[in-house]
Write a structure and sequence with these properties.
- It contains seven helices and five strands; from the N terminus they run αααβαβαβαβαβ.
- With about 180 residues, it is α/β, with parallel strands linked by helices.
- Strands 3-2-1-4-5 form a five-stranded parallel sheet, with helices on both faces.
- Strand 1 (about 70-75), helix 4 (about 90-95) and strand 2 form a beta-alpha-beta unit.
- Helix 1 runs antiparallel to helix 7 (about 160-170).
Length: about 180
């Protein structure tokens, strides 16, 4: 999901929407979304439309004026920092700084191997830590995450929505957000 969060009203709407979705039963959520997925799958399979490749750099180019870019990306659930990671091209092709947070210690060496050569400015940091909603604000302050960062990707296979809510409630306003949706 990508949202342009240029103002507080949009951020408040997103927090309210997250709370509403958290209150839905898993069955209600799945029933709503299965209908949408079935319709989209049918249209793609029938050749009625092709899904385009939408990248963070494309979204930023289309949605955000150059003078508003901070060139900072936050990758929560970074894995090895490269494989199937939509944030990696910002680091590798656009010289972005940022913070990559990964809970699994065994990815540390992979993250260093994949990201260290790209860290020419010293603005790209790695944090091996389990991110919990209660520590979002403190951790982001510790790593000097700008309030108006360009991109935030959350894929931690657990309480992704709660991390997003804590981020928004702490006053952070990512310009583009990608978050994994879990039914629970």
């Amino acid at each position: 999901l990508a949202y342009r969060l240029g103002n507080t009203t949009m951020a408040n709407w997103l927090v309210a929407d997250i709370r509403k979705r958290e209150a839905m039963s898993a069955m209600s959520w799945w029933q709503d979304h299965l209908l949408l997925l079935d319709a989209a799958e049918y249209r793609v399979s029938m050749g009625l439309y092709r899904l385009p490749l939408i990248t963070f750099s494309f979204l930023l180019e289309v949605l955000v004026p150059n003078e508003k870019l901070t060139h900072f990306a936050l990758n929560v659930g970074g894995g090895d920092g490269k494989t199937h990671d939509p944030v990696f091209p910002l680091f590798s092709h656009h010289a972005y700084g940022g913070l990559v947070i990964e809970a699994n210690e065994r990815f540390r060496s992979h993250l260093i191997k994949n990201l260290a050569p790209l860290n020419t400015t010293g603005r790209l940091q790695i944090c091996i830590k389990h991110l919990h909603p209660s520590i979002v604000a403190t951790l982001f302050q510790q790593y000097l995450v700008p309030q108006d960062l360009d991109v935030m990707k959350i894929d931690i296979d657990s309480f992704d929505a709660a991390i997003l809510r804590s981020t928004l409630e702490a006053g952070y306003r990512p310009k583009v957000i990608a978050v994994e949706i879990n039914s629970d």
